[in-house]
Design goal:
Helix 1 crosses helix 4. The chain starts with a strand and ends with a helix. The chain has a six-stranded parallel sheet, sandwiched between helices. The protein is of the alpha/beta class. The chain has two domains: about 140 residues, HAD superfamily/HAD-like (Rossmann fold); about 70 residues, DNA polymerase, domain 1. Helices cover about 40% and strands about 10% of the residues. Bound molecules: 6-O-phosphono-alpha-D-glucopyranose and magnesium ion (MG). The site of 6-O-phosphono-alpha-D-glucopyranose (G6P) has 16 residues, from helix 1 and helix 3.
Length: about 220
């Protein structure tokens, strides 16, 4: 029986993925790497340091920096990202998402956040959504990033629920893999080819319908 919903943040609740990409593009440019728009999809769901690594590899500069220098680069990107995020308001919540969260809450479902972002508390505050969530995984306490299942297992445990009692929402292939490795029902938001492996896929949050998702969840034997 469905008792809880678990959400990724960037690309699911709000489109902060565009701000991540812009901040990385600006940083990459400073070190001589021209990052195309299409790179944004590769960054979805990856931790800050993993994102920097794939950007440096793309620019063939992975051996040019010490660990300390890499941390300084990541910190610079984060400063720029925070400046952009501080301008966000509840108008930046993706279509239908606020309705879905409130509908779930009214049904008595528990809500958890499973975002790899250390800026998630700031973003939830900007979106005025922080009071809706019963639990939030602190990514600083995790050993492994997505696609490892750790973050979704932790979110489910924080809610005190079993894997067949939750539905988890993701926009990233690494995130869908993480949900499935945790044994949970995955709703993918985005391109069905990219998100193959999810149990239910919508092209965008505008197409989300909680009653329909619950129907498919039950039909799958949950
Ligand atoms: C999310 C985003 C990634 C981002 C990661 C870490 O998973 O999809 O693009 O790199 O969070 O975010 P942070 O705000 O901690 O740098
Ligand atoms: Mg995401």
């Amino acid at each position: 029986m469905l008792k809880g919903l678990i959400f990724d943040l960037d690309g699911v609740i709000t489109d902060s993925a565009v701000y991540h990409l812009k901040a990385w593009q600006d940083l990459a440019k400073e070190i001589g790497i021209d990052l195309p728009e299409s790179f944004g999809d590769k960054l979805r769901g990856l931790s800050r340091m993993d994102s920097l690594e794939i950007i440096l590899e793309y620019g063939h500069k992975e051996n040019d920096y010490t660990q300390e220098e890499k941390e300084a680069l990541a910190a610079k990107k984060n400063d720029a990202y925070i400046k952009a995020v501080q301008k966000m308001t509840k108008a930046d919540i993706l279509p239908k998402m606020a309705d879905l969260l409130h509908e779930a809450k009214a049904q008595g479902l528990k809500l958890a956040l499973a975002s790899a972002s250390k800026n998630a508390p700031l973003i939830l505050h900007q979106l005025e959504l922080e009071d809706l969530f019963d639990a939030r995984v602190d990514p600083a306490t995790l050993k492994h990033g997505k696609p490892d299942p750790e973050i979704y297992i932790r979110a489910q445990e924080l809610l005190g629920l079993e894997k067949n009692e939750v539905i988890s929402f993701e926009d990233a292939p690494a995130g869908v893999k993480s949900i499935k490795a945790a044994g949970q029902f995955a709703v993918g938001i985005g391109d069905p080819v990219v998100l193959k492996g999810a149990d239910y896929i919508v092209g965008s949050t505008s197409a989300l319908d909680l009653a329909e998702i619950e129907r498919v969840f039950k039909k799958a034997g949950n």
